[in-house]
Amino acid sequence: MSKQHTQGRVAFATVVGTSIEWYDYFLYAAASGLIFNQLFFGPLGSTLSTMVAFATVGISFLFRPLGAFLAGHYGDKLGRRVVLIITLIAMGAATALIGFLPTYESIGIAAPLLLILLRIIQGISAGGEWGGAVLLAVEHAEVKHRGLRGSFPQIGVSIGLILSSGVLALMTAIAPGDAFLEWGWRVPFFLSILLVAVGYWIRRGVEESPVFHEIAERKEQVANPLGKLFKSHWLLVILASLVFVGNNAAGYMTTGGYIQNYATDPAGPIGLERGPVLWAVSASAVSWLIFTIVAGAVSDKIGRKNTYLLGWMLLLIGIFSLFPLVNTGSIWMLFLGLVILTVGLGFTYGQQPSMYAELFPSSVRFSGVSVSYAIGSILGGAFAPTIAKALVSATGTTTSVAIYLALVTLVSLAATLALRDRSGIPLGPAHEEEQSVIPIIGVRS
Known about the structure:
This protein is mostly helical. It contains 20 helices and no strands. The chain is globular.
């Protein structure tokens, strides 16, 4: 099989696999503010039930590091592919079981507790999925196309958002009104069974990363990769995590379900219909997909760091444009606000896999990228919808949310400035010494 054909198969497999994983993950997030707040947390009252439902979205993030630790440990010892298959199955099983859950009205407090348990399983799976997918893509890629190839699993996020929002919107049309709350919401969760079967079949045929093959042939697997990572690269893990927080916090305005809830809340200032808002979110995810790929390709030309610096400026523009447009009450202005936001989201996301892979040495790379991503997601998006809901309740204005997102983005900008650009550095174990030089400005190894 030619190298180009192998890279094509890897790209396809990582896109399909991550799309399915994020479909499952975002489906819960979208349902939290539209469905779970009523059916599982309803007795808490309108505002508190929504805040608690959003908090369950965030709880899963607290378990992402556990998934990252497990996946990183075994991914650096046993390979990238086996971890990806396990995380796909775990995520799909949890999602399908959510579709079968009785509501609070049927079994009382056991209903939200079981819901939270399944969300925790989703969090563990998501923590292990990302590192394996992006390393397969980046480590298979040619150096000159590393940024572009690395962006492919990233578009799984936008495709997952398109699918989850689109299927929910379709079900609001098929099962309108009370029927949606009675049974219609369950269908998208059942659909996960079919999607996971397809993803499993595709991932089984993917070849292991050539970098890991070389590590195994040299018998250079580290016995305790996590221990080595935190002993030698703890500061790098912190900075890499902070690079991600701005994108993740802003992105979870939609992927975390906040905009969907804010725009459709009958007691809120907007009061739009659920279906059109879900379709607008799905359509804006197409823009996110496009700019994610563009950012990956651009980073191959101007470097990862320069692409990030451009991206943070674009994201700040998107953040301060979003709520003024949403607050017009027009579905078209809401869509425009989301599209402007996705330009910055794409330009701070497409280059992330290649940048992360280039930061860490091959022996602890899976652990490094997975743990950094997991910690960044906790600090960034984990409770962003809950914080946004609380800020609006306390201040009465969405300006407070924009300021919060802008401050988090500035943290990521500062972390980006603290790192050296290592675009194109060799990724194989033969260059471990070069890779181990700490890429932090002002810090010597």
